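Case study B.
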Amino acid sequence: MAKKKFGVHPYIPNSVPEVRSEMLREIGAGSVEDLYATIPERLRLKKNMNLPEPFLSEFELKKHVEALLSRNTSCEEYLSFLGGGCYQHDVPAVCDEINQRSEFLTAYAGEPFEDHGRFQALFEYQSLMGELLDMDVVNVPTYDGAQAASTSIRMASRITGRNHVLLSDTLSPDKLLVIRNYCRSDLKIETVGHCPVTGRVDLEDLRRKISKRTAAIYFENPSYLGCVDDQGQKISDLIHQDGGISVVGVDPISLGVIAPPSHYGGDIVCGDIQTLGIHMHFGGGHGGFIATRDEERFVREYPSRLFGIEETAVQGEYGFGDVLYERTSFADRDKSKEFVGTAAALWGITAGVYLSLMGPKGMQEMGKTIMQKSQYAAKRLSEIRGLSLAFPEAVFFKEFVVDFNKAGNSVKSINKSLLQEKIFGGVDLSDQFPELGQAALFCATEIHTKEEINRLAQSLKKILGRSRKAHIVKKGKRG
Amino acid sequence: MGMDMKTKLRRFHQARWDEPVIFESSRKGERGILVPQAEKGIEDVVGDGISKLPRRMRRKKPPQLPELSQMQVLKHYLRLSQENLGADFNVDIGQGTCTMKYSPKVNEQFVRSPKVSALHPLQDPSTVQGILEILYKTDLFLREISGMDRFTFQPASGSQATLAMASIVKAYHASKGESEQRDEIVTTIFSHPSDAAAPAVLGYKVITIYHDESGLPDLEALKKAVSKRTAALFATNPEDTGIFNPKIDEFTKIVRQHGGLCTYDQANANGSLGLTRAREAGFDMCFFNLHKTFSSPHGCGGPGCGAMGVTQKLSEFLPVPVIRFDGKKYLLDYDVPLTIGKVRSFYGVVPAVLRAYAWIMSLGGEGLKEVARVAVLNNNYLLKKVKEIRGASAPYAEGQHRIEQVRYSWERMTQETGVTTDDVTCRMADFGMHMWSSHHPFIVPQPFTLEPTESYAKAELDEYVAALKHISDEAYTNPDIVTTAPHQSVTHRPGHANLDHPDKWGITWRAYLKKCEKGLRKRIG
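Model:
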C-alpha cells in the first residue's frame, strides 16, 4: 500500500503551506528547518521513527480504536465482585456531565479570577469532605489513596521529628509498595499484626512496638481485608500516650453510617475518592485526600495545595487563593514540603458534585444499602458447602474474605470457572496473604441486586460441586 | 457586532454568576439523587445492616452536607464551569511550559466508553486484552520517540515520574553498594521545581546549577558540582527559556564519567518530536507528560500521566507490573527483579494513555514531526511579534531561534511605567486570555512564559499579541486601567489578608464560619 501523504492536519491549523510561508517570511527564516539551527547535527534523529501508518480521518481512527476496545469485557457486561482498592459504584449522570465540561476538562492553572470556577469547586470539595470526615482541613486531591497515606505518614514524621512508623499488616500489598518506596530513605517501617478471628489490629502487638521514637500508626477502617476495627479510640490513645500521631485510612463512601476517624482520635485521616462518583477506568479513577484538624502544626506540613476563601478588591465578593503557598515546591523547590503539581483535581471536582447530590440522607442510605447487600452476599456464600468467612467475627462494610481452603480447588481455578459464567469473582488473596491459604476478597455494593448475588452463590455452588465430584472420581480411580 | 478587526481585540466579558458557596443554597429535605434500597428479600435476611456495627462505630449525627435538588446541583456546577477559562475557549498560549494544546474530542468518546471506564484493574487479563494492547503499543511508540528501551505509565504526573526516576537512581546505586556515598543530585534553576523537590523527598541533597550569560546551564558550574557523591543529573532541554542546549551530551557525559545517572524531564517535548531524542543526548531515563505533549487534557490539574522510559540496564528497577506480550496475549508481569515497587495504584491513569495512543495514531511519524515543526514555527513567529511590543524583551540568546517556548520579560516596562507582570496577567483576563509569569524564583525579572504549541491558528496568535500590545500601550498611557485590572473577569484582584494566618485562613466552609463567629475574621458579603 502506498504511504498516505501527510498534508494539512485538522489538529494543526498552521500546517497550511501558505500560512507557513507567510509566518516564515515574518520571522525572516527560509524554512522551518532553519529554526532548528541550534540543534547540532550529531543530536539529530537521522532515521524516521518506526511508527504505524496513521488513521488520518477521524472515522478511520474511531473504527480502529473501537475495534481494540471491543476486545475488553467490562463490569457492565459481566457481573463483578471485584474490589480491593478500586470499586464499582453507581456514578450519577450529573457527575459525568460536570467533569466532561470543556471549561473544567481543558483548563489547567489559570488565575483565581479567570479560573474562579475551579477554585470555588475545589474549595467546596474540601468543605464537603470536611463535613463527611468531621474535620476542618482537607487538601486539593493528591494522586490516590496510596499517595495520601504515604504523605500522611511523612507529615506525621515531620510533625513529631521521629522516623519510626507502624503500619497495620492488613494493608493492600500494592499500597505497602507505594508507601515503602516513598519512605525508603529515612523512615523505619514496621508492621503490626491482626487478630485472625476479627481482623482487628492486635493491640498487644501494637503496645509492644510503640515507643517514644514512633511517629505514627497507620491503620485502615475498614481494612483492605474488609474488617471494621472498633478499637480506633484505643489505638489512638496508645499512640498518643507516647506522643505519636494516629493516621487512619478510610473509604469515604462508608461515612454516612460509620463514625469518621476524627470521632475516635484520628489526627490525620486519608483515603481515596474514587468511590465518590468516579468510574473505575481500569484503575485510572483515583484521587487521594488528606484531612486534619485546623492546627498550624498540621497545616504547615501539607505538601498539597489548600484553597482558602478570601476577599477580593471588591467588597462582598468571594475569592479564593492558596493558603500558606510558601510551603509548596512551587515556591521553595527542594526546601519545600515534598512536592506538588498536577494530581487529580478533576476527580476532586467530581467528588464534590457527588457529595452535593447525595446530601446527608443519601450518604446514610448508601451506607445502609451497601452493608445490607454485602452482609447478604457474605451469608449466601458462607452457606455454600466448602466455603466460610475467613474472619467469622468481623464486622465488615462492603468487602469480606471468603475462605476457600475446603473448596477442593484453588481460587484461581474457581475464578476461571466463574468467568465461564460471566462473573468476575473476588480478588484472589492466596499470594497476597499466604497465611490465609486459599482465600478471596469479595465486594458487594449498592449496584448488586439480590438476583445477581444469588446468581454468584448458585454458580459457586455448581462449580464447587463439580470439583468435589471430580475429586471423588479421581480419588476412586487412584484407590 | 463582532470583534474589532482592526485592533483584533474582543469586547469580552467572562461569565459572572456571583454563585454562593453551595452550603448557602441548602434547603432541608431536598434530595439530589436517590439511592437504591436493598430488596425486601435481603432486608428479611439481614435486617437493617447497620445494627451489626458496634455502637461506638456508628455515626451518630449525619454529615452536615448541603441538601439540594438535582437541577439545582447541576446548575450550581454548570455556573462554576462557566466561571472557568478552559483551553477549549481561550487562546491558551500563555501557560508556557504546560503545552496547552488541543485535546481531540473523539478521544474523549473513547475514554468515556464503558469498554474503558467500567474496567476493573484486577479483571482476568483475558478480558482486558484490548486495553493492554493499547498500553503495550503506546510503550513501543514512546520507545521509538525517545530511544529508551521500556516505559511505565504508572506515574500520574510529571512530578510523580520525577519521584519514580529518583527512586530508580537510588535503587540503582544501592545495587552497586553506592547508595550511601551518592547522596547528591544536580539540577538546573530553569528546570521544573519538582526536579529539585521530588529527589529531596528521597533524602537527596540538591545542587542547583545556574546559567551563564547565554541563558544556558553553566558547564563550568556542572563540572564543579559533580563528584563521586553525584547520584544523578535531573535536567530539562530546552529549559523554560526555550533555548536548546547544544552541549547537552557533554553534560550527560561528565555526569556519567563520575558514575552518575542522567535523567531527562521531557514533560514538555513538543518541539523535539522526531527531531532529537533522549538516547542520542546520553540520558538513561526520561519522561513525557501525556497531558502535555500527547494531548490528554489537564483537567484543572490532573489526572495526568508521566510516562517514564528507561534504558535496558535500568529496566530491572521499573515499578511493577510491566506489560509484556508473549506473541499471543498481553500480560501483567510482576517479576521485575530489582523493582522499586510501586509509585501509584494499579497501572496509572489509563485514560491518559488511551488518549495519547489515539493521538499518536491520528498523526503517525510524519504527523508528530509536523507537530514539532509547527510548534517551533508558531513560537518563533510569536517571539518576533512580542519583541516588537514596547517594554517587552526576550532575555538571552539574542538573534537565535528558540524551540517551543520563550520566557520573556516586562522588566523595561516595569521600570518605565511601574506596571508589573502580575498586573498584565490581571489585565489579560479582560480579553479572555491568560498570561502566566513563571515559577519562583523570578530569575528573569518580571517574567512571562508563552508556548503556542501547534494547535493555535495564526489569527489566534495575532489576537494574543494584539492584547499584549494593547496592554503595553495602556501601561505607558493609562497605567491605572492595568494596575486595577481585571475589570471584565469573573472576580477582581484577589486579596491575601487571610491566607497565611492560622487564626484567619478558611480551608473549609465550616472552618471559615467558625472563625467568623469567633470574630477572628469578617464574613465576606
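The first strand of chain B starts at residue 150 and ends at 152. The remaining cases will be described in the next quarterly update.
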